[in-house]
Amino acid sequence: MSSVDLTTMAPILEALEAIPRSAERCIAQYADGETLVDYVVSWSDWADDIAWAQTVLAAWGVSAGDFVVVISTGHEAALYGPIIDALNSLGATVCPLEPAEFEIGRAGMFFRRFTIAAVIGLDSTLGPALVREGLLESGLRFMLARPEAAVLAAELDVAQGVVTALGPALALTCPDNGLAHVNGSAWIQSASGRAELSSRPIRHESLSALDVSGALDAGGRPECCSLGRSLGRLIAPS
Ligand SMILES: [Zn+2]
Would the pTM of this model clear 0.85, i.e. be above it? Predict the structure, then answer.
């Protein structure tokens, strides 16, 4: 029995399950150069993304009882929603923060009251304030930073990787060597070896030949572990 069964949410969730729903869960956006492109994320896509994120986060060592800070905003739900759902599925407690400096008070409450195992989504606005307050100095087992905060994260003595969007795909680095991975059942790298991404037929919306080379270095190996398709090393924008 999951803990949610013990709450007043149970009848609400049951009713939600019984309501007919469309295949589409939400509309998201990815950046194609200067242009923002809408695309559809289906319920099936969402479930796949949760399952994959769960595999990667378990590889990083997340397990039941961990407290994990996630720094994200609502409009990033297509990227961070599956991460939050995956953490819940693993039995971790999500401590949510927004990438804004005014969150430092709430952050202090989380870090002082709980032993925070990991920070996911370290950003370049709240992140420096967390460092200034000394909140990231002890207890953390790992951190997944946004590319723009990778330099900040590198100054911290903690195992770390990167979390970002590669086009419409969630990309996470693996614990082994910092290479970017996307869900290999949903996305495929172009056969030419260039840093292009296309959706596999399992995805609700067909997307092809998305150029993600600006976010990756050229030296990545095609495969490095079993966590998904490896695309190369993620780099911070200059
Ligand atoms: Zn790997």
Answer: yes
| Cα-based torsion angle of the residue sequence 81, 164, 41, 16 in order, rounded to the nearest 10 degrees | 0
Token pair in block for residue 180: 């970017």
Look at strands 35-42 and 24-32 and give their pairing: antiparallel
Cα 235 to ligand 1 centroid, rounded to whole Å? 16
Domain ranges of the chain: 23-233
Quote the ligand 1 centre to 179 CA distance (angstroms). 6
Of the candidate CATH numbers 3.40.980.10, 3.40.50.300, 3.30.70.100, 3.40.50.12780, the domain formed by 23-233 belongs to: 3.40.50.12780
Calculate how far, in angstroms, residue 129's C-alpha sits from the geometric centre of ligand 1.
31
Q: Report in angstroms the alpha-carbon separations of 128 from 54, 117, 151, 206.
A: 28, 19, 11, 39
**Nearest-CA neighbor of 149 among 119, 107, 118, 176?**
119
Write the Ramachandran bin of 11: left for phi over 0, alpha for psi from -120 to 50, otherwise beta: alpha
Closest C-alpha to 212, from 238, 191, 232: 232
How confident is the model over 82-135, as pLDDT tens digits?
999 999 999 999 999 999 999 999 999 999 999 999 999 999 999 999 999 999
